[in-house]
Write a structure and sequence with these properties.
Elements lengths: L5 E5 L11 H11 L3 E4 L6 H9 L6 E3 L3 E6 L2 E8 L6 H27 L6 H7 L7 H10 L10 H4 L7 H10 L15 H10 L3 E4 L2 H4 L6 H9 L4 E6 L4 H14 L2 E5 L22 H15 L1
Parallel strand pairs: 1-2, 2-3, 6-7, 7-8
Antiparallel strand pairs: 4-5, 5-6
Helix pairs in contact: 4-5, 5-7
């Protein structure tokens, strides 16, 4: 039976680190009895478009959306654009540009890993991500599964050691973030404020994804203040990234500043984030969708 629950942050195979095509996500959501979902692929709306085309067959409501990779004050922040016009040429062009630079960065990262003694090729990486620009976790997945690096000492902890529970994500955390020996600076830094403005200009509601995964509180609350003044409409309060303390801080901030709250699992599938399950958050009623729709109407009138 259908519940009154939603999951507003889900990735398909149109994100390079997502396991499931849109139809599988729809089937999984139906099996769980979810009432509404949102496909929020990284810098792509194709998964959202396909889900919208067939969601009625599954008795589901799908909110069109995208998760835009952005940068602000030296931090990588992800902007969720709910109800953004996924057919608008301005949106499609900007996302295509982001993906083009991601592709070039991936090629540089592969060369860096090769220089570190990790044997992996671009074609192997692309085979794991045929519908999206390959990113960090997929690159190291290709390296760990091609059979040529199984005896490499630096990979042992991830292949069959203490970090093998989620090997690709753990390698990313250890090596591929700023300061790591396998980190490559982004070739394009799309501003968070520009992404907010793009979303608003095309009928969307911009929401900051998993703030607790990108910012440190209370010190970084000033960053949210600045983004709010540029039109940020909401925060993803309930997320697999957040502690109870994060939820309290973010919910209180939304209440004080009249921002909408959203909830999303950030589900990718078993490959990259095996511990995250679809539809599992501490608070995710359909009322969150209704509030998002109300905010969208307000934005359209202004």
């Amino acid at each position: 039976m259908m519940s009154d629950q939603v999951d507003l942050h889900i990735h398909t195979s149109y994100s390079s680190d997502g396991d499931h095509p849109p139809d599988e996500i729809l089937q999984m959501a139906q099996d769980l009895g979810l009432r509404a979902i949102s496909i929020t692929d990284h810098d792509s709306v194709e998964g959202s478009r396909l889900a919208l085309m067939s969601c009625q067959d599954y008795g589901l409501e799908v909110l069109p959306a995208v998760e835009i990779t952005t940068f602000f004050h030296g931090k990588e922040l992800h902007i969720l654009g709910y109800f953004i016009d996924i057919t608008a040429q301005g949106v499609l062009d900007k996302l295509a540009t982001i993906r083009k630079f991601d592709e070039a960065r991936s090629r540089q990262l592969i060369l860096l890993l090769q220089g570190m003694g990790i044997d992996v090729t671009y074609d192997e990486v692309k085979a794991h991500s045929p519908t999206a620009a390959p990113k960090c976790s997929l690159i190291i997945k290709a390296a760990m599964t091609n059979g040529r690096n199984v005896d490499l000492p630096m990979l042992q902890a991830y292949i069959d050691g203490p970090k093998s529970d989620q090997p690709y994500h753990n390698f990313f955390l250890d090596y591929m973030r700023p300061g790591g020996s396998a980190y490559i600076e982004p070739l394009m830094r799309y501003s968070s404020t520009d992404a907010i403005e793009l979303t608003l200009a095309h009928g969307g509601v911009p929401v900051l994804a998993h703030p607790g995964g990108s910012l440190a509180f209370p010190g970084d609350i000033e960053i949210i203040d600045v983004l709010r003044r540029h039109g940020l409409c909401g925060l993803e309060v309930y997320s697999s990234y957040h502690t109870k303390a994060d939820e309290r801080v973010l919910a209180d901030y939304c209440a004080r500043n009249e921002l909408v709250m959203t909830a999303g699992s950030d589900f990718h599938g078993a490959t990259i984030k095996p511990n995250i399950r679809l539809g599992v958050m501490p608070y995710h009623p359909y009322a969150l969708v209704e509030i998002l729709k109300e905010r969208r109407l307000v934005s359209l009138r202004t």
